Amino acid sequence: MEEQRAWWKECVVYQIYPRSFQDSNGDGIGDLNGIRSRLDYLKDLGIDVIWLSPVYQSPGDDNGYDISDYKAVMDVFGTMEDLDRLLAEIHEKGMKLVMDLVVNHTSDEHAWFVKSRRSPDNPYRDYYIWKAPVSGGPPNNWASRFRGPAWEYDEGTGMYYLHIYSRKQPDLNWENPRVRQEIYDMMAWWGDKGIDGFRMDVISMLSKDQRFPDGVLKDGNPYGDGLPYYANGPRIHEFLQEMNREVLSRFDWMSVGEGVGVGTREAVQYAGYESHELNMMFHFEHVELNPGPFGKWNDNPVCLRELKEVLNRWQTELEGKAWNSLFWENHDYPRAVSRFGNDSPVFWELSAKMLAVCLYMMKGTPYIYQGQELGMTNFQGRSIEDFQDIEIHNVYREMVGSGRISHEEMIRYINHMGRDNARTPMQWDDTAQAGFTEGTPWLGVNPNYTWLNAREQAGRGDSVLSFYKQLIKLRHTMDILVYGTYRLLPEESGSVYAYERTLGDERLTVLCNFTDQTQRCGLSCRALGTDNVLIGNYPDQSGTFRGDGPALHEEEDICLRPYEAIVLTQ
Ligand code: GLC
Ligand code: CA
User: Which one of 30, 230, 364, 395 is least enclosed by Cβ atoms within 10 Å?
Assistant: First the structure.
């Protein structure tokens, strides 16, 4: 089926985590005016859309994902006027702005919750999920996703409220039509301001199974896994279709949902061309591969065969039915080059570029997380004081405090998987604090900023940054990259990812070596019918194909050097 054109299929999105992007007033926290001062950098990179992580009023228990007023800007980020100015300048420069929508929960300091907890019979009580104690304890065994129980006992009225995240993030009751209407009105208010869409936080979790059954105990967690009962719940599609009718369809927006617990079958429901819900979903199967006995807390290497299985399945199962989103990184995951590539000095740059080729030549809307375009890496914390994230602190307290694992082991896992890896300040240049702030940054700068920074890379044609610019340009100029169909090339390799894109009689072949050794592809130029390189990450790529590079003759297997990535065109 011919794919329908849409602007949100053709754009490249850049995610900004405002706390860590650019500070403008020396308080060590990134802010709106800081972002505004860097718009030329983003324009020059070539991106079309900025997705801004939350800048709303918030006590900051989960860095802004705990909102106390949806229509106000948090003072450390600036004012509503600063936001209006930012939006206007983004539009002047021909870019768009997508805001974060966090409506599974609010902060416990939101006026609705403050009223809700006052008494069992006030009009806001049913805005949240309150339950009477069962046998003197919580209504079920669900774990909070930030560790500990998901129910908090509230002395005032002697009842429990549900918080799937921190106890300062009570879950909204979407069963209540007044809650839904308030949210739609708020979204339209932002729409009237002129924003260009929403990224929707844990949107798959809005509808809870009203029986609230116990969850299974797993990963050594003393509390049960409620995910099967709160992800993709019974009324979720009804709610999102209503949201689409009431608000989304009124604006020329893009909408992307965070699909916790969403597989391909569900994604086709949320983002299907016929579903009238959202434009696309984020799934997490590729970034949550290889869990260990403590779930996400591990330092297991990722197996390419499994990674290919996941990405391939998403590409093929959504084909013609729903649109994909493509991401390696966001503010909740470690740096891709450290996890899927190789951040040693020899291979850092090559593998950062290879990962970009591998994912962004696929079908779907690319999302680039701040600093990824520089190949920013994980950092190595030593003590728990080196981290700020609530999730990291909670898991450390629980696991090390109870003696289940040692400090050293936990820090190793945190260094590998912790969210703060993505949240260290953006590395702009080699001056103090990487040019992020003139004060003391809220979270330490990665010490490699002295050589890994935007200014150095902007001045160098073969940098990771320059490579991202080329890839983005290709996405903008070649229809096949947006609309072409994807097909895995049938080689059974645990080291090479090979696939093709086709559109009409055009074809592109993408070959990526995920190892630090030279690898044969099992494909020859003769078989592929071309030796024409569109883009590659080795400087002498044409040599590879025309003589003096590692063996490559028409008939022979293409040999890919360590972390080599090439795209062949006809
Ligand atoms: C999403 C956000 C994450 C946040 C959580 C709770 O997963 O991406 O940062 O902690 O929701 O809002
Ligand atoms: Ca600031």
Answer: 364
- Which CATH code is given to the segment(s) 7-104+176-206+254-469? 3.20.20.80
Q: Is 499 in the pocket of ligand 1 (CB under 6 A)?
A: no
CA distance 30 to 78: 10
Assign domain 482-567 to its CATH superfamily. Golgi alpha-mannosidase II (2.60.40.1180)
Q: Is the pLDDT of residue 376 over 50?
A: yes
Beta pairing class for 280-282 and 254-258: parallel
The model's pLDDT over 159-192, given as tens digits with 9 standing for 90+, comes to 999 999 999 999 999 999 999 999 999 999 999 9
Residues 255, 331: Cα–Cα separation, whole Å:
18
Mean pLDDT over 469-497 rounds to: 95
State how far the Cα of 518 lies from the Cα of 511, in Å rounded to an integer. Answer: 13
Q: Which of 12, 45, 15, 20 is nearest to 465 (CA)?
A: 45
Tell me if the domain spanning 109-160 has CATH number 3.30.70.920: no
Q: What ligand is nearest to the CA atom of residue 105?
A: 1
Pocket test for ligand 1, best of 55, 65, 70 (most atoms within 8 A of CB): 65
Atom of ligand 1 nearest to the CA of 104: 12
Ligand with minimal distance to 51 CA: 1
Query: Which phi-psi region, left, alpha or beta, contains residue 56 (left: φ > 0; alpha: ψ -120 to 50)?
Result: beta
189 alpha carbon to ligand 1 midpoint, in Å?
23
Q: Which of 99, 230, 332, 394 to mutate to test the pocket of ligand 1 (most atoms within 8 A of CB)?
A: 332
Per-residue pLDDT at 528:
86
CA distance 263 to 253: 24
Tokens representing 124 are 């806001």
Among all bound ligands, the one having the nearest atom to the CA of 60 is 1
Nearest to 319 by CA among 2, 64, 17: 2
Ligand 1 in contact with 332 (CB < 6 A)? Answer: yes
pLDDT bin (cut points 50, 70, 90) of residue 43 is very high
The token pair that represents 235 in the structure block: 């009324």
Residue ranges matching CATH 3.90.400.10 in the chain? 109-160
Cβ < 5 A residues, ion ligand 2: 23, 25, 27, 29, 31
pLDDT tens for each residue of 95-148: 999 999 999 999 999 999 999 999 999 999 999 999 999 999 999 999 999 999
- Whether 551 has a pLDDT exceeding 80, the answer reads no
| pTM for this predicted structure | 0.97
73-88 pLDDT, tens digit per residue, is 999 999 999 999 999 9
Q: How far is the CA of 202 from the centre of ligand 1 (A)?
A: 7
Taking CA 73 as the corner, what is the angle to CA 71 and CA 77, rounded to the nearest 5 degrees? 165
Please give the share of the chain, as a percent, with pLDDT higher than 90.
91
Residue limits of CATH 2.60.40.1180 in the chain: 482-567
Instruction: List residues with catalytic annotation.
Output: 201, 258
- So what's the pLDDT on residue 539? 87
